């Protein structure tokens, strides 16, 4: 990335962070310029109160992370806000306009789009066809207009140009005519993000953008998300990857058992003992890369085994351990433990398989 871009990104981030300077670090805190405001939003599934949000505001022009343990209600809350599910009660507004009862395509037209944990790219359509479908208000959609090509041809051309620009920006232009089904998990995430931008949204909601993404694509995905703020958009994302949250979020909202438990800048939230207890566990201050290294060295496995057997004394110290010798358990090059699971498997493991149908 050129230096100019880096300094401009930094300036945007500084401005976004500065906007939170006087915001109290408490659940439901008022923001200076909220783009999205939700009140008393509740959603029951039988006896389970999956979402029970008293009040939350999302600051315009910022990147806000919504974190919380599995089952905290994050995806359900996303579904409610974007019209994919209906609440038992509550209200919310986007740019001051109530969106309660608004169907998803109208929510997208209003400027609020979302992506899904398991991507919704249509695998039997090509990449460019998927992109074109992302555009709303297409004139040829009505029967009579469809009969009069001169009324929609120029719009078709504009849509294709915009789609091609976005594909180039997301480095998917070489895949333009490939079936979406042939893309890797990470490329599909990029396609979904690019497609969401076809409606020129003001607020982009990303549900676990990192799930199933190959490490090689991680950095590029992070840059794309940061770039959304750079281009003046607001981002709200759900993520379990704490590296991503630390790296790019200006503000973090923590959910647990349907409620907003805590809010604040990433460093404050991630050192909050309640959040650590509820969510982050003992390794909250470590990056995934460090954890991976420990895992590979065997230190984490030994610690976990000792913890399970109750033999705390047997747990190794936090000092780095020497890797096991190749003559021990570890297979030499290319053994099963060396094989990386396919992205799809990782995605399925990390996201569960029941989400998308909802
Ligand atoms: N359609 C549904 N029917 C019944 N229960 C549901 C349904 N959707 C979600 N739930 C339940 O609501 C609770 C919140 O689920 P949700 O998927 O919103 O959590 P989450 O915070 O997104 O979790 P994760 O981080 O695992 O994605 C969970 O207990 C879940 O089992």
TrEMBL record:
GO terms for molecular function: ATP binding; ATP hydrolysis activity. Residues 303-358 are annotated as: Disordered. Keywords: ATP-binding, Nucleotide-binding, Transport. GO terms for cellular component: plasma membrane. CDD domains: ABC_Mj1267_LivG_branched. The keyword Coiled coil does not apply. Residues 36-282 form the ABC transporter domain. PROSITE patterns: ABC_TRANSPORTER_1, ABC_TRANSPORTER_2. The keyword Repeat does not apply. This is ABC transporter ATP-binding protein.
């Amino acid at each position: 990335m050129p230096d100019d871009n880096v300094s401009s990104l930094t300036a945007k981030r500084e401005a976004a962070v500065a906007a939170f300077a006087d915001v109290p670090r408490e659940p439901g805190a008022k923001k200076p310029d909220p783009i999205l405001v939700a009140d008393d939003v509740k959603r029951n599934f039988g006896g389970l109160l999956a979402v029970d949000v008293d009040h939350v505001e999302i600051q315009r022009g910022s990147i806000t992370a919504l974190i919380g343990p599995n089952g905290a209600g994050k995806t359900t809350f996303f579904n409610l806000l974007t019209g994919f599910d209906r609440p038992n009660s509550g209200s919310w507004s986007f740019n001051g306009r109530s969106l309660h009862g608004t169907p998803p395509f109208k929510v997208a037209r209003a400027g609020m789009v979302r992506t899904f944990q398991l991507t919704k790219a249509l695998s039997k359509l090509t990449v460019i066809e998927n992109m074109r479908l992302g555009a709303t208000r297409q004139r040829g959609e009505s029967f009579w207009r469809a009969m009069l090509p001169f009324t929609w041809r120029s719009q078709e051309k504009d849509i294709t140009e915009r789609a091609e620009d976005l594909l180039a920006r997301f480095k998917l232009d070489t895949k333009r005519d490939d079936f979406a089904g042939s893309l890797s998990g990470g490329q599909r995430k990029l396609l979904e993000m690019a497609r969401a931008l076809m409606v020129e949204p003001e607020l982009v909601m990303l549900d676990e953008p990192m799930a199933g993404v190959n490490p090689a694509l991680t950095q590029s995905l992070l840059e794309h998300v940061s770039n959304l703020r750079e281009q003046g958009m607001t981002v709200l994302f759900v993520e379990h990857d704490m590296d991503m949250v630390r790296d790019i979020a200006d503000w973090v909202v923590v959910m647990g058992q349907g409620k907003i438990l805590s809010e604040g800048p990433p460093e404050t939230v991630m050192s909050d003992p309640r959040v650590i207890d509820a969510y982050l566990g003992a390794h909250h201050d470590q990056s995934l890369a460090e954890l991976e290294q420990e895992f590979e060295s065997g230190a984490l496995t030994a610690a976990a085994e000792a913890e399970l057997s109750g033999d705390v004394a047997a747990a190794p110290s936090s000092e780095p351990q020497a890797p096991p010798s190749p003559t021990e358990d570890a297979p030499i090059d290319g053994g099963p433990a060396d094989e990386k699971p396919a992205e799809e498997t990782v995605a399925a493991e990390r996201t569960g398989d029941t989400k998308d149908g909802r």
